[in-house]
Structures are given as structure tokens and as C-alpha cells.
Write a structure and sequence with these properties.
single chain; about 120 residues; mainly alpha; elongated
Length: about 120
């Protein structure tokens, strides 16, 4: 495993941890839910967008789409984006499509060509 691949996996872990923090502190907080029901602030609108996003499986579809793109492009950045989107999908209840996106992202990361030595 290359250093680049390890950094991408570490960044995916950071996205996973941040997504869990957002989910438990912001989306699933019942007191915040009642407050947002009483007064729709911009933060509540973003919270509602997250809720609609996982209800309509937006995170999972994005993970699969980015995973497919990563397989075609074979770049570490594309694979990292696919894995980050998969982490969001898995945390926000889109486990079926999120797991498929994670597999596609991991395959794409494994297939990324190694950096060639610079000529000269």
C-alpha cells in the first residue's frame, strides 16, 4: 500500500468521523428538531436538506456515481471522493448504495497507477 493510498483512507476515516458527529449532534438531536419545527432558521434548512438527502438516497446515488467515475478515471482524487461520498452514505442511512460505492471506490483506489519516476 502506498503512502498516497494510506492518506486517502485516513481522509475517508476523518470524513466518516465528521459525518457521525454531524448525525448525532445535529440531525438526530430531538431538541433541535423541535426548535426547527417552531422556527425555520438557515441552519434548520440545511438540517432539513440533509434529512431529505438521505430519505431520497441522494448520498448513496452520489457514492455509486462517483465510484463508477473513479473506476473509469483511475485517479486517487476520484477514488478518494468516491470513498468520502460512501462514508456519508453509510452514516446517513443509505447503506445499500453506500456500500456499493465504497467497494467501487476501494477497487478504484487499488487500481490507481503508481507514480512514475521523473525523467531526467
Amino acid at each position: 500500500m502506498t503512502t498516497r493510498q494510506m492518506l486517502i483512507l485516513a481522509a475517508t476515516g476523518a470524513v466518516l468521523a465528521a459525518a457521525y458527529a454531524v448525525r448525532f449532534a445535529w440531525v438526530e438531536d430531538s431538541a433541535l428538531g423541535f426548535a426547527c419545527a417552531a422556527d425555520m432558521t438557515p441552519a434548520c434548512a440545511v438540517r432539513q436538506a440533509f434529512i431529505l438527502g438521505f430519505h431520497w438516497k441522494v448520498f448513496g446515488v452520489a457514492a455509486v456515481a462517483l465510484g463508477a467515475v473513479a473506476l473509469m478515471l483511475r485517479t486517487p482524487v476520484a477514488a478518494g471522493l468516491a470513498l468520502a461520498a460512501s462514508a456519508l452514505a453509510l452514516v446517513f442511512y443509505n447503506t445499500d448504495l453506500g456500500s456499493l460505492g465504497a467497494v467501487l471506490g476501494l477497487i478504484a483506489l487499488a487500481r490507481c497507477p503508481a507514480r512514475s519516476a521523473q525523467a531526467g
